[in-house]
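pasting Putative cystathionine beta-lyase for the record, 123 residues
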Amino acid sequence: MNVKKWLKSLKVHIASNIQFTLQYLNENIPELIVWPAEGCYFSWVDCSALGYPFDKFYRRLINEGRVGIMAGHVYGTEGEGYLRLNLACSREKLYMGLARLASVIKNINQEKENEQYGSYPSY
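structre below
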């Protein structure tokens, strides 16, 4: 494959991953706001609507979710409360990361609900 064809296929792949990410997060984690990549293969994910301390959330992503993702504050104070999502990976890897992210958020939301209303057994 020559370089031009490779670059074109890479751009198509990244554009497809951007659309997939936007759709997945919209359907599964609407609390997160995604800033689509512009001219690169990283998107910024705003986590402020979670209502959960970002540092605790980030640690849970790493330890509980096994998600390898960068915290935005690494890139400056403007990135606080954001995740930096790499979209130049395989669709399978992207899906697994997003699914794990969703699982951690689901657990956090369940814990918040249990704290608010108490934990009752389901029958």
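The chain has one domain: 3-104.
The radius of gyration is 16 Å.
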